[in-house]
Amino acid sequence: MSLEDLKEKLSKVVEPGDMVPRDYEKDGCLLEIKARADQVEAVAKAAREADCFLESITAVDFTNGPQIIYQFNSCTIVSRVLVRVQLSRGESVVSIGSIYDAALWYEREVFELFGIRFDNHPDLRRLLLPEDADFYPLLKDYGKVHAFRSTEEIYGE
Amino acid sequence: MANEFLEPITEQTFYLNMGPQHPSTHGVLRLFLKLDGEYIVEADPVIGYGHRGHEKMAESHLYEQFLPNSSRMDYLAGLIFNHGYVAAIEKMAGIEVPPRAEYIRVICAELNRISSHLLWFGTYVMDLGGFTPFLYSFDDRENILDILDRVSGSRLTYSYCRFGGVARDVDDEFITATHQFVERLRSRWDDYHNLVTKNVIFIHRAKDVGVINRELALRFGCTGPILRAAGVPYDVRKAEPYSVYSELDFEIPTGTKGDALDRYLVRVQEMEQSLHIIEQALERLPDGAIKAAVPHKVRPPRGDYYFAVESARGAVGFYIVSDGTSYPYRLKARVPSYGNLQVLTEVLPGTLVADTISILGSIDIVVPEVDR
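ok -> structure tokens follow
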């Protein structure tokens, strides 16, 4: 499976304007996709068909709402794809646990650290934190942080 | 696998807590098992006992201040994590590293990989009931600790790398000791193979146990020796060569079936490959500076970056979002043991409780790395 193959599969599920090539030498990833919350499942399916594995799911908190970052890569040729999903505060996103089992734990982690709920997740318990934790530690209004910024300040968009 | 022997769930199923304190878990891990007699019906690894919040800590510390944290995630391959973290920042900030420093980093990282594999070798075989190989491997591992102690000043949580180079130069004694160690470990392979690899009891405990094939490994995002034992030659050192790995000649050992025995063989062969890398790097070790001139506070340009390295357990990645200041806005560490441990939810059901020890040992997890 090549990156072209993956691009072709992805172009069927997202608009071409939302696929931004990245400089691998500088950023360590080859392609960035700006997806909406309802496109996540289709993107994950396309990545799975292209024989990619799920490298990680994480999130970043911004003043204009948290952003989830999915990361896919292939074990045959480096083809790291970042899928960026901007959410508004309190918005949930659909779970991709039925496509990638690895997502089940990553989604639990993102849920407990950022408070982002994943619809259709079979078992959205806390993973790293105590079962009765009632805080979301990686939100920027929790604990000691250096700065709380908007996406515009960092990505200029 | 023993699935065909498994009776349907009856009212006789019961729950067993393996851990959080159990000699075979090598860290505070709890396996919540649903059992039907001796067979596992469901397995749920419960983690987080060692969660220290490294990612949160990063958000209020300078890039330099977070440096010692990096080697405390995976304490058995600390230098490799340390290397990954500084290399990520160097790439973001565009810092050029002198070649001598890169070679020193590779030599030390490979020594660290061998020490991690030796510890795994000893403890895995000890879990299966063989105490003697443990003493052999710890004897050899002690040599590495002494070598790394001399240059880095610590025996476990090495924070040896610095932005733009390494903390201290290596001397002739380091080079001689490393050469001696390479020779010593080579001369020990026969003992290792006679004691363990050819041991019929060991083979019975490891062969066809805990099969993780390519499909399963990719679904769970397993990397490292687990993926390679399933026959996939994926190694970050080859797939995305960092540092000076592209100049060094080495092979990626792979297995065929993906059972515990394959994982054992892959790791033992990896140690030999690491020795090969160390020899080449020692031979080519250039003269020159060991640290580039870097600003007192590193300020990477705005944006997000990802950098991956291969630790002893698989692909490690640092995803860093920078807001242009000297503090990371967000730092995420992608750790290999995460996926490698999660796969147990699928592998354990249908096996015997006694095999759990063998499967868990063959996966070689470091729990603090999963918990971060």
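Chain B touches chain A through 47 residues (CB under 8 Å).
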